Amino acid sequence: xxxxxxxxxxxxxxxxxxxxxxxxxxxxxxxxxxxxxxxxxxxxxxxxxxxxxxxxxxxxxxxxxxxxxxxxxxxxxxxxxxxxxxxxxxxxxxxxxxxxxxxxxxxxxxxxxxxxxxxxxxxxxxxxxxxxxxxxxxxxxxxxxxxxxxxxxxxxxxxxxxxxxx
Length: 166
Fold this sequence. Notes:
The protein is mainly β.
């Protein structure tokens, strides 16, 4: 496979596939498919729609227990952070602030997650926050600047990669 061309896993199965994330056990991928969420099962190649919603759902990320998917739904000031329980099919809003766009949730561990939100309803600069499961409170990270900071990617326990204009 060293010099082989990439393989499109979803070709002919969905019209649009974005934001793929491997499960922690590497048995499946969660991704945005045709404005909702799907699972791609590695061994079988089957695609399973896991969310049926009239709102756009995107940026899925696995919860460490692999029984839930974090994701963002809606857009602009209406965008919020949700979790989808894969065992029950129940969707729950886990973070919402009035007139603020919240998106790109990334689980840190079973208690915390990163996400991106606007600095304020009047300042649409992206900032990275640390959220806490079960609480609608969060704290801004010290690394935020007056420029956009987004796309948090924890690497190990002590490092965080992110995108920034500063």
